[in-house]
Amino acid sequence: MACDNGTLEAGLTDWELKGMSQQIDPLVEQLGLSMWKVQRKITSQMSLHKEIGLTVPQFGLLRVIAQEKNARVIQLADKLEVKSSAVTVMLDRLELLGLSAREPDENDRRAVIVTLTGKGQELLEEGKRRFLLLLTEHLSILKPEELHNLADYYLMLERQER
Predict the structure, then answer these.
(1) Residues 107-123: pLDDT tens digits?
(2) Which pTM was predicted?
(3) Helix, strand, coil share of the chain (percent; to 5)
(4) Distance between CA 124 and CA 151 in Å, rounded?
(5) Which helix (DSSP H) or strand (DSSP E) does residue 105 occupy?
(6) Which of 6, 74, 131, 145 is spaced 20 to 30 Å from 115 by Cα?
């Protein structure tokens, strides 16, 4: 596509062209990097999945199974934004450890329903407890008012409303 200055911008979408013309606020860049570093730091300190021989994505699949309750493999894949085959491989490992189960879907013989076992639910609850303890430790450097403000700001960002 030809631009006003006569240069050729082949293969770029309108979104990419718009992004190239906008300046990124250095503070936004710094904040994004800091948020990423904090998340990585906390995630790297989570050890429960390592103790039981799971990868971070497999542990994430446990959380999605719990949220979706009686989900089909395709639904889990959509939530995780991966292919069904990737979910199937992860489910094989979870089943081997006794954390999840697959049962035939009564409404569709071609599909299976995925559920957590009691052991999977217990493991998930322990993971949540450990995560919250770790997060509490990281947030302990903030004064109560700062923690309250941070929570308010995150909710504002989550909801995308003022």
Answers:
(1) 888 888 999 999 999 99
(2) 0.68
(3) 65, 10, 25
(4) 24
(5) strand 100-105
(6) 131
